[in-house]
Design goal:
The structure is a single chain. The chain is an alpha/beta fold and 492 residues long. The protein is built from 19 helices and nine strands. The strands form two sheets. It has a seven-stranded mixed beta sheet, sandwiched between helices. It is globular. The structure holds 6-phosphogluconic acid. The site of 6-phosphogluconic acid has 13 residues, from helix 8 and helix 11. Its EC number is 1.1.1.44. Pathway: Carbohydrate degradation; pentose phosphate pathway; D-ribulose 5-phosphate from D-glucose 6-phosphate (oxidative stage): step 3/3. This is 6-phosphogluconate dehydrogenase, decarboxylating. InterPro entries: 6-PGluconate_DH-like_C_sf, 6PGD_dom2, 6PGDH_C, 6PGDH_Gnd/GntZ, 6PGDH_NADP-bd, 6PGdom_BS, NAD(P)-bd_dom_sf, Pgluconate_DH.
Length: 492
């Protein structure tokens, strides 16, 4: 048999798969394409793939036979059972040292498991985040690979060639072991949920408090997109608000206000709870989608539950209102990214992954859904200090949030007095005020726990005494009725 020509195989010819193949072919690689419904391969070969360095395979064996060794096979199929099923089908044809790359939105514990299972068989498994939607896949996505590091030298060149570039640097680097790549993609998606929620809150305030038309709001987003908020999501929001339906009215106003979700934001919030990290903004963004989907209940509630009417003269100075709102969005976004990196940091410790923060920020800088000018500053902050304890401690961000604070507070106060919900703006500010509080009311909470359940507390070092010794779990008989036996202490 002639020497195989394929540099990379790809299974799954849906939108992302087809575009990624065309992207790789544009960069001079020969890609072998396979799809479960084989007619799709023929259709692809006769149309989009025609005349390009793409080989259509009609079976798994044909796919494998056409690949150079070590074989590099990308799966772009629905996360879950389909990934396991294709791995099973591939295994009889693969040899030690071959590489399987899962480019779907797989849940990272699944990637951990697959990585371990395949390690035992001598196959290198890589779980790679792929972000950027259809256009990203075609012209340069953000790629976040992690798993078997032995695979990296064999996939680095192709991955970095087809990925997006930011200031000439590829938005693709090695993330870390096992499921780290999919973990980082999961947090990316959580942040995506947060950014989207913040933008919708700004739109809602402009519409309901400011009385702005969609075109006017589109103009505000257009302006913001030339400043610190310059980002893909602000850019598409501008375009969405300017898009009219056939009858000349904005299409967006005809869309049912009930948000869907595929689960990656929820996974991030659940993981934050598991790791004990206050990633409040992503949590609120997920819950805001849940609340929006209670549409029929909300319609009933709207006629029963009172709230303030929006006052006609709530806004004194329109420009000031827009500027304050911009600052509120910016400050909340800083908090969201600070929280996202807090989570990544904790995951690194808990799962024993050495994660590369500057590289993660760079991977998100271009190609992906959350790409923005802002991420260049985050990259800079982590390059200056890869071990930065919190993004908010970097001078650029400390200064930015200090400057944004007054507009942020004014915006939330205004929305609250006018009865407009701002879950993400508000939780960001509450986090900020909590994080910068040397003293929080958790002392009272600890007392309550000890009062009703003998759960014990510790004393502040400066208040320690013979009766209240420092560093010990103390129980007090608050009522004189309870016993002196304390419950066991443990941290969930
Ligand atoms: C990306 C996106 C993508 C995600 C969609 C839909 O990075 O390209 O994150 O992976 O699937 O944005 O997510 P939801 O359906 O959960 O909104």
């Amino acid at each position: 048999m002639a020497q195989p020509k394929g540099d990379m195989g790809l299974i799954g010819l849906a939108v992302m798969g087809q575009n990624l193949i065309l992207n790789a072919a544009d960069h001079g690689y020969t890609v072998v394409a396979f799809n479960r419904t084989v007619s799709k391969v023929d259709h692809f070969m006769e149309n989009e793939a025609k005349g390009k360095s793409i080989i259509g395979a009609h079976s798994i064996q044909e796919l494998v036979d056409n690949l150079k060794r070590p074989r590099r096979i990308v799966l772009l199929v629905k996360a879950g059972a389909a990934v396991d099923a294709f791995i099973e089908q591939l295994l009889p044809y693969l040899e030690k040292g071959d590489i399987i790359i899962d480019g779907g939105n797989s849940h990272y514990p699944d990637t951990n498991r697959r990585y371990e299972e395949l390690k035992g068989k001598g196959i290198y498994f890589v779980g790679s985040g792929v972000s950027g939607g259809e256009e990203g896949a075609r012209y340069g996505p953000s790629l976040m690979p992690g798993g078997a590091e032995e695979a990296w030298p064999h996939i680095k060149e192709i991955f970095q060639a087809i990925s997006a570039k930011s200031d000439g640097e590829p938005c693709c680097d090695w993330v870390g072991p096992a499921g780290a790549g999919h973990y980082v993609k999961m947090v990316h998606n959580g942040i995506e949920y947060g950014d989207m929620q913040l933008i919708t809150e700004a739109y809602d305030i402009m519409k309901r408090v400011g009385g702005f038309s969609d075109k006017e709001i589109g103009d505000v987003f257009a302006k913001w997109n030339t400043g610190v908020l310059d980002s893909f999501l602000v850019e598409i929001t501008r375009d969405i608000l300017r898009y009219d339906d056939k009858d000349g009215t904005p299409l967006v106003e005809k869309i049912m206000d009930s948000a869907g979700q595929k689960g990656t934001g929820k996974w991030t919030a659940i993981n934050a709870l598991d790791l004990g990290m206050p990633v409040t903004l992503i949590g609120e963004a997920v819950f805001a989608r849940c609340l929006s989907s209670l549409k029929s209940e909300r319609i009933r509630a709207a006629s029963i539950l009172p709230g303030p009417e929006v006052s006609k003269d709530a806004i004194k100075d329109k420009q000031q209102f827009v500027d304050d709102l911009e600052q509120a969005l910016y400050a909340s976004k800083i908090i969201s990214y600070a929280q996202g990196f807090m989570l990544i940091r904790e995951a690194g410790k808990t799962y024993n992954w050495k994660l590369n923060n500057p590289a993660i920020a760079l991977m998100w800088r271009g190609g992906c859904i959350i790409r923005s000018v802002f991420l260049a500053e985050i990259t800079k902050a982590y390059r200056e200090n890869p071990e930065l304890e919190n993004l908010l401690f970097n001078k650029f961000f400390t200064d930015a949030i200090t400057k944004a604070q007054s507009g942020w507070r004014k915006t939330i106060a205004l929305a609250s007095t006018q009865g407009i919900p701002t879950p993400a703006f508000s939780t960001a500010l509450s986090f900020y005020d909590g994080y910068r509080s040397e003293r929080l009311p958790a002392n009272l909470l600890q007392a309550q726990r000890d009062y009703f359940g003998a759960h014990t507390f510790r004393v502040l070092p400066e208040c320690a005494s013979e009766d209240l010794p420092e560093g010990q779990d103390i129980h007090v008989n608050w009522t004189g009725r309870g016993g002196n036996i304390s419950a066991s202490t443990y941290q969930a």
